[in-house]
TrEMBL record:
This is DNA-(apurinic or apyrimidinic site) lyase. Belongs to the type-1 OGG1 family. Coiled coil: none annotated. PANTHER family: 8-OXOGUANINE DNA GLYCOSYLASE (PTHR10242), N-GLYCOSYLASE_DNA LYASE (PTHR10242:SF2). InterPro entries: DNA_glycosylase (IPR011257), HhH-GPD_domain (IPR003265), HhH_base_excis_C (IPR023170), OGG_N (IPR012904), Oxidative_DNA_repair_enzyme (IPR052054). It comes from Caproiciproducens faecalis. It catalyses: 2'-deoxyribonucleotide-(2'-deoxyribose 5'-phosphate)-2'-deoxyribonucleotide-DNA = a 3'-end 2'-deoxyribonucleotide-(2,3-dehydro-2,3-deoxyribose 5'-phosphate)-DNA + a 5'-end 5'-phospho-2'-deoxyribonucleoside-DNA + H(+). The lineage of its organism: Bacteria, Bacillati, Bacillota, Clostridia, Eubacteriales. Residues 111-260 form the HhH-GPD domain.
Amino acid sequence: MKEDGNLAKKNDAFDLEQTLECGQCFRWEKQQDGSYTGVASGRILNISEQNRGHVLDDPFWKQYFDLPLDYEEIRENLAADDPTLARAAKFAPGMRILNQEPWEALCSFIFSQNNNIPRIKGIVSRFCVGFGEKIGSGYYAFPKAEKIAGLCEQDLAPVRSGFRAKYILSAARKVAQGEVDLEALKTAPLPEARESLMTIHGVGQKVADCTLLYGLHRLEAFPMDVWMKRAMRTLFPGREPESFGEYAGIAQQYIFHYSRNHPELFVTEKESAAVGM
DNA sequence: GTCCAGGTTTTTA
DNA sequence: TAAAAACATGGA
């Protein structure tokens, strides 16, 4: 285990809990011993504070956890930009944006709409168990778009995804037919990529932006859900997402996670709304 | 029983 | 255009 100062510094900016429980992914489970077990691109991994040095020797996982990117520097630049953003970033300095499979991110955030995180996890899990390839005892790969494209709404009933099932089918068919070319969207101009995703029935701007940020690693994408809208109104009045720069998506993740864990920041706004002010 | 959840589509005025 | 309502499901 030889680590030069540079690598050691970068590892400081990687915290498992902050990364895997900040709302960007739905397939990692914390074990009793504090480690995390999950599946990505058909690979099973158990990662802990103890074995992560070894895990990150593997090129795939190094990329998955976005180790090549210097989050320390990005965080410092964002912090210099705005004191509130500095506070949000400091709350989870070890958070990193994962390199998830594009198709998985697309489906996950279709399932996420008007839904809560525990239930999203359950739906994703049933989706994988029901339609994914078995890759180990109790572990399944994320189902292929080609397989899902051949199903009907009734087939998806056991997933219990409600009205979102037909959206998944629309996504699967467009992806399987190449009508939406996810790989190409990694380099397409952002507005163009977003528009392409929004041709899928059930994908609006927010789900498209989540797919871009979490699945296609478009770090300038800035998903605006109810939390982010509230956070922008309250904490960053007058600021546009684009003003956060090329790593706006990372700023978004700091703000989202910070806001969800500090609901007290928004109680006055809630009360004002209730009174009708 | 009612409300809400990392939205989007459909309906209505 | 813009604002409601509907959409499935399940936990609080």
